[in-house]
Amino acid sequence: MKYEHFIIKYRWWFIIIPIIITVLAAIPLAKTKVNPDLEKYLPENTPAMLAKAKTDSLFGNSDPVILIFETTDVLNTETLTRLKNLSRAFHKANEFDGVISLYDTKSIKGAYGAMVVDPVIKRIPKTEIQREQLRKEIRQNELAYKLVVSEDFSKTVIILKVASGITDEQVVHTIKRTLHEFPGSETVYKGGTVYLRVQVNSDISRDMLILMPLGMLIMILFLLLSFREWKSVALPFLVVAMSIVISLGFFPLMGWELSIITILAPIMMIAIANNYGVHFIARYQELNAANPQWSMKEITKNVLYHLKKPVIITGLTTIAGILGLVVHILLPAKQLGIAASLGIAFALLLSISFIPAMMATMKKGKALKSLTQEKAGIIEKGLSRLAKLSTNRPIVILFVFGSFLLLAGAGIVHLQVDSNSENFLPSKHPFRQATSIVNEDFGGTKYLTVLFEGDMKDPKLLQRLDHYETELKKNPSVGSVMSIASILKIMSRAINDKGDEFYDKIPDTREAVAQYIELYSMSGEPEDFDDLVNFDYTQALLIVQFRADSKNALDNVIDEIDRLTVDDPNRSIIGGYCLVDKELAEAVVHGQYNSLLFAILIIALLLVLIFRSFVSGLLGSLPLLFTVITLFGTMGWLGIKLDIGTAMLSSIAIGIGVDYTIHFFWRYRYELGSGKSHEEAIATTLTTTGRGITINAFSVMLGFVILFVSSFLTIKYFAFLIIFSVLLCLLCALILIPALCLLIKPKFLEKKP
């Protein structure tokens, strides 16, 4: 017991040094920042990020802000006056490079053989006749109808193109100030990735302020209910608090920022970091009840002697499981894996040094009645019944678990990946309402841009663009398709009569194309096409606007675009924010596979090394495989999709769940070594160590319960699934593993530790 004597002898050093380290780690916390930008979750060198960066550098920011105005009739005088004032104000604002509204959209017509380019609204109608005439003109204008005004004229939009170098906060402040300056009775909805980022930023900060204190409170109450004495609550609580500081302090120290994913770090500490302390306290109470004559130092030495190895082993396997996130492609997932592992490692060190050092300085408490023969508690009674079930009906247990696995696992075929970042927010959130309106009335919230390079006045190239537009518009998900080719066709209808050879057609010579553009510039502004073609007509965009609420719908449109344009010699790249969403979804799948495989292999290898048996790796991995298959199958049956939040489930779940199996193995081997039969060893293990395992598991589950009050749907789903997976791991450790051990009687557990 050299280590135990060392801890007791220098206990004050083992108390003071961790406190100093924690205080030093808390200093950088003031510099913690939040990153709500989902684009930054992917490495910058992915194809989608490179494509978006190129198109943005050529044609400006491709993530517009969309303001939706809803009223009975948007052509009423008050609404049109407000739109006019707002449009002018946004044009003057330095935060925006471009504005699209009813006052900025053009009407291209022909008059006496010439092309006339006017704003859709030249003047506000004063009479009902003028209003109906304007309504008729808008319906005939494909640049306005269903793009900036809805089919029933109850909604209209102002689309703002954000200037480079402008922060989200500046954009939101300018819009808020301008809307306040020009008030109206219309209902205003705000959409676009700027507002998504701002909302995510706000919700992350809110979650951090609410979830941590609430989680700590729940943990304190549960530990008090389980251990029924304050010292037994204080020690695990201190370990959790100190590990949270260590894990969060690592973020600013490394220059990392908090994200939707990494806000899980403190919650993971609350749920996991008290695990090891819980086992120490449970064993202390067990020994205190069995040996009332022992002093606190004697109990501490005995607890440390028997638990330091299994606690270290379970800590290492938990760290190994969570480190599986390091091989994830998503940057925040990697960061979470490192920071959480660091926090858990610190909690592990505290559990085998700080907690016993603190215990040695405290007075011994009264023995719990439930641990003496006077009165058995609920947990003790339940574990005693499970012991009888495992030893009497092992075959039945295997059949039940096997049947449940097959039934639940069948749901994996229904499991889907969610590529829509908007789904992080609840369906009734104002941002989601804005998204729904744009999808229903304005062509969709998704944009894809296809960059073409070459002579953009070449009729053959323009005709190909026109063909792509025609084919894409047949797709029911596509709301609109726009390019310089569609503008030229509108011009052709303006200066040619129906029945003419060139009516509604791309001109057949380069000179004729140039003439169309020259005619337009006489009445309109050449800058009107800046979003579609560059100044010297060597690069142009085909812009596809569509609806996609699932990865399959997104893939359908992307595949259609690729099929049409893949052989075009002038096609350069396909870009757009939704491609980033698509890559995020694919990263979720690949990251899930890689991190899961890594975690299970590392844990199995650790078990083989610890117990010096290949069978231990297989047997210890069974609960993990059972949990993972059941978990993903349940997600499929319930329609819960894999996204950037739920993608981390498997690594975290198996990192937590393997602890229970190891603690069972360790105590079971000890009881067998003391001369007990397999049945007696199982009964003793479940009614002693099983108590610590049960309290531990429910403490973890309660720690994650607080995530149900998160602002993000994906975090709420994560909470439900992680609680479900921990419950499965607990049932495996208390029922399945004992039944298997009784049937197999593995030799590695018959060796003395």
Describe this structure in words.
The protein has 753 residues and is an alpha+beta fold. The chain is 61% helix and 8% strand. It has 26 helices and ten strands. Strands 2-5-1-6 form a four-stranded antiparallel β-sheet, sandwiched between helices. A hairpin with a 2-residue loop joins strand 3 (106-111) and strand 4 (114-119). Helix 2 packs across helix 13 and helix 8 packs antiparallel against helix 12. The radius of gyration is 33 Å and the shape is elongated.
Provide the CATH topology of the largest domain: Multidrug efflux transporter AcrB transmembrane fold
Percentage of residues in DSSP E strands: 5-15%
The whole-number mean of residue pLDDT values reads 85
Strand line-up of the largest beta sheet: 2-5-1-6
Structural class: alpha+beta
* Poorly predicted tracts of residues: none
CATH class of the largest domain: Mainly Alpha
Q: What share of the residues lie within helices?
A: 55-70%
| Largest beta-sheet details | 4 strands, antiparallel
Number of strands: 10
| Distance between the ends | 15 Å
CATH architecture of the largest domain: Up-down Bundle
Q: Quickly count the domains.
A: 3
Radius of gyration, taken over Cα atoms and rounded to an integer in Å: 33 Å
Shape: elongated
Output the number of helix runs: 26
